[in-house]
Write a structure and sequence with these properties.
alpha/beta; 6-stranded mixed sheet
Length: about 500
C-alpha cells in the first residue's frame, strides 16, 4: 500500500446535448454549487458524484470540492461558457495541487463549436497535469465515448442500468479504482470496441437484447481476474460526430492477455441489432388506456418525442391537443416549456382567464395550440427532485405558471426545460397527482423509477427531436446503422494503457 493521499479534487459537469434542439444552453441554465455545500448536497443525493465523494471519504482521502454544474439536457452548450468552465478548473489545479481528480460527466455534452466537449476538456486537463496526477471519470451509460476521453483518463466507469438505478454505485466504483490506482495496487489498462450502430428502441437493461448483453458482461468478470470493470455505452443517438455508436469498455489490471470476451459482447450488439425496436402505443391508444384503466393510480405517459431527459425543448403540444379533442373528460397534468406564455400568465395574474397560444415554438416541426384557461398559480419554479434518480438534487423550472383548462387539465408552463422525470415538477406547483387520470412526463426511462409508487408507466410514441427514426433527423457527420446500411464492423480493440 502507498502512503496517505489526501488531495483528490472532485467535479461534476453534467449535460446531455441534443444536436437537433435549436435552443443554445447557456451558463444560466446550469445549477451551480461549490465548496462544502457541494459536498453535503452530493452526499445526500442519488448521483454518481455522491458515490464518488462518499467512496473517497471512506478512505484516507481529503476531498477537495471543485464545483458542480448540472443542466437539464437540451441544445448545444454555449462555447464561451465552456471556456469559462475550463478556466476555472485550470486555476483550481494550479491553486490546490491535487494528487488526483475525479469528475462526473454525462458524457454526451457538445458545444456550439465542439461535438465532444468532455473529450476536449479532458485532453486539456491531461496536458496540464501530466501523467502523474491520476484522473477518474464516472459517466452515464448513454455517453458518446471517444478516443479523446479514454486516452486522457486512468479510470472510466459507467452506470450499468437503464433506467439508471445504480448511479451511486457507479461513483463508488470510480472512487475505489482511482484510489487503487493512486496507491499502485492496480495498473489500469482500458480496451474499447466501437460498433457503428445506435439503438432505435428496446433500450432498457431489464429485458430484451440489452439484458442478455449485460448478463454476458457480468459473467466475464469472475472468470478473468484481470478485469476490473466492464462498462457498456448505449450512445446518445442525438449526437452528430465522428466515430459514433455503441461502445464496450473493459478496464484491466495491466495489459490484458485476452480480449476475446469484450469482442463477443460487441459482436452481440451487431448480431442482435434488429431486436432493438419499440412497439409503443400512439397518443390515441395511450389515452384509450387511460380512459379504460381499472387501477386507482393515474397513468404516467412518457412523451418520447419531447423528452427533456434526451435534450428536447419540452414544448410539444401533441398530447395536450389530443386530450382536448376527445369527447371524454380525462383529468391530467402536463408541462410545456414556453417562457412567453409564462409572462402573459404573470401579467394576467392568478384568478384571471386568458386566451393564449402555448408551446410548439422551439421544437422543429411542432406547432402551438390555442387554449382558454384560468391562471391558478405562479412561482419561481424551484424544486427538489424526489428521486430516487437524482433524488435530493435542486432543480428549477424557471418562472412558472399553472393554468387550468376546461376545469380538468392542469398545464404547468415553464420558462425553461426541466428534469421532468420527477413528480416534484407537478407537486411543487401544488398539483395533487393522486386525483388525476394521467400525468405526462418528458422522459422515456428514468420516470419509471421516480413515479414507481404513485403512477403506472406507459411509454408513448410521439413526434419530436428525441425519438429516433431513420432519415428523420438531419445528421451531417454521424454514420451508423440504421441511418446507413453499414457493412459488418471490424470489432477493432483499441488499447489505452
Amino acid at each position: 500500500m502507498g502512503s496517505k493521499l489526501n488531495k483528490i479534487m472532485v467535479y461534476r459537469i453534467w449535460h446531455e446535448s441534443n444536436t437537433f434542439n435549436p435552443c443554445i444552453t447557456k451558463g444560466t441554465d446550469f445549477a451551480f454549487c461549490e465548496g462544502e455545500e457541494m459536498l453535503q448536497n452530493a452526499l445526500q443525493a442519488g448521483s454518481t458524484l455522491g458515490g464518488i465523494i462518499g467512496g473517497l471519504k471512506s478512505k484516507d482521502c481529503e476531498v477537495l470540492p471543485g464545483f458542480s454544474l448540472v443542466g437539464a439536457p437540451g441544445g448545444l452548450v454555449d462555447h464561451e461558457f465552456f471556456e469559462t468552465i475550463w478556466t476555472r478548473i485550470s486555476k483550481d489545479v494550479d491553486r490546490l495541487c491535487p494528487n488526483a481528480i475525479a469528475i462526473e460527466f454525462h458524457g454526451a455534452m457538445g458545444t456550439t463549436e465542439l461535438p465532444d466537449a468532455e473529450g476536449e476538456l479532458l485532453s486539456r486537463l491531461r496536458e496540464k497535469v501530466g501523467g502523474n496526477i491520476k484522473i477518474g471519470i464516472g459517466l452515464d451509460l448513454h455517453a458518446h465515448l471517444t478516443n479523446a476521453m479514454i486516452s486522457s483518463v486512468d479510470i472510466c466507469v459507467a452506470c450499468k442500468e437503464n433506467p439508471h438505478s445504480d448511479v451511486v454505485e457507479c461513483g463508488i466504483k470510480v472512487a475505489d479504482l482511482l484510489y487503487a490506482t493512486i496507491n499502485g495496487d492496480i495498473l489500469p489498462t482500458m480496451c474499447m470496441i466501437k460498433v457503428p450502430m445506435v439503438l432505435p428502441g428496446n433500450a432498457e437493461t431489464t429485458s430484451g437484447p440489452l439484458y442478455d448483453i449485460h448478463k454476458t458482461a457480468r459473467h466475464l468478470q469472475p472468470n478473468n481476474k484481470q478485469i476490473l470493470d466492464i462498462s457498456i455505452f448505449n450512445m446518445f443517438p442525438y449526437v452528430d460526430d465522428i466515430d459514433t455508436g455503441q461502445a464496450v469498455l473493459a478496464t484491466y489490471d495491466e495489459l490484458p492477455t485476452n480480449t476475446k470476451g469484450i469482442t463477443e459482447i460487441a459482436q452481440k450488439f451487431w448480431s442482435s441489432r434488429q431486436e432493438f425496436v419499440d412497439d409503443l402505443p400512439d397518443i390515441k391508444e395511450a389515452l384509450n388506456q387511460v380512459a379504460t384503466k381499472e387501477c386507482d393510480l393515474p397513468l404516467v405517459l412518457a412523451d418520447m418525442g419531447d423528452r427533456v431527459l434526451a435534450g428536447a425543448p419540452g414544448d410539444s403540444t401533441v398530447i395536450l391537443k389530443e386530450v382536448l379533442s376527445r369527447s371524454d373528460t380525462l383529468t391530467g397534468a402536463i408541462s410545456i416549456t414556453d417562457p412567453d406564455a409564462v409572462n402573459i400568465a404573470k401579467e394576467a395574474g392568478v384568478g384571471n382567464q386568458i386566451n393564449i397560444q402555448v408551446g410548439g415554438k422551439l421544437s422543429p416541426g411542432l406547432s402551438s395550440h390555442e387554449i382558454s384557461a384560468s391562471v391558478i398559480a405562479l412561482s419561481n419554479g424551484d424544486f427538489t427532485i424526489r428521486g430516487p434518480f437524482y433524488g435530493g438534487e435542486k432543480s428549477s423550472l424557471g418562472e412558472t405558471a399553472v393554468l387550468l383548462i376546461d376545469d380538468r387539465i392542469q398545464l404547468v408552463l415553464t420558462s425553461k426545460p426541466a428534469l421532468c422525470h420527477d413528480p416534484a415538477v407537478f407537486t411543487s406547483q401544488g398539483i395533487n397527482l393522486s386525483r388525476l387520470d394521467f400525468i405526462v412526463a418528458k422522459s422515456g426511462y428514468h420516470f419509471k423509477l421516480n413515479f414507481a409508487d404513485i403512477a403506472v408507466p406507459v411509454v408513448v410514441r410521439t413526434p419530436g427531436v428525441s425519438y429516433y427514426a431513420p432519415s428523420i433527423l438531419p445528421y451531417k457527420t454521424s454514420k451508423f446503422w440504421p441511418e446507413q446500411q453499414t457493412v459488418s464492423p471490424d470489432f477493432e480493440v483499441r488499447i489505452f494503457s
